[in-house]
From TrEMBL:
Interacts with NAT10. Binds tRNA. Belongs to the THUMPD1 family. It comes from Micrurus lemniscatus lemniscatus. Residues 156-170, 178-201 have a biased composition (Basic and acidic residues). CDD domains: THUMP_THUMPD1_like (cd11717). PANTHER family: THUMP DOMAIN CONTAINING PROTEIN 1-RELATED (PTHR13452), THUMP DOMAIN-CONTAINING PROTEIN 1 (PTHR13452:SF10). This is THUMP domain-containing protein 1.
Amino acid sequence: MEHTASPLKQPPFESSHLCVLAEPEKLVHHILKDMHATKKKKTRVILRMLPVSGTCKAFLEDMKQYAVTFFEPWFKSPKKGTFQIVYKARNNSHLSREEVIKELAGIVGHLNPENKVDLSHPEYTIMVEIIKNICCLSVVQDYVLFRKYNLQEVVKSKAEGQPETSHKNDGPGAKTPEAQRENQNERQDKTETASSDNHED
């Protein structure tokens, strides 16, 4: 008599976990808004949360073609708003920062001429993150209010976030070394944008 191995029984159901973030910029904004209001630190290891709403190849023509439709929900007429562009590149040397900013700002201006550049308190911040040959794009709100989406800084009180001044032997309004370093970092991180008014159609 031959013994045959009984076939393995297959479970009638399989469990799986699927998580889809349809609008990551809204999720991150909600988290930062809560932290800004409560001033409660909810993480010790995460420094910044940068949502990515769209990706394309990191070549100027591909970026321009993709940005036309990507920017529509925020900037296409009749919608309008003030904006700035934040650009950072990693492991990429073939793109020009100034050229990318100029072209993207021109696209925003073409969608609605009433869209204006504002580096102080923009309604929207266009985030361009270049990683090798991939371009990650997102449009976020309250970028300045939420301290460049820095989770460690957004929970600080207003007094803690302001640079201190020294009034001893340094003259009126002289800043401490910590405040000087903070101002230096802010100057290095300052975003350069090209006004859409100067774009040639």
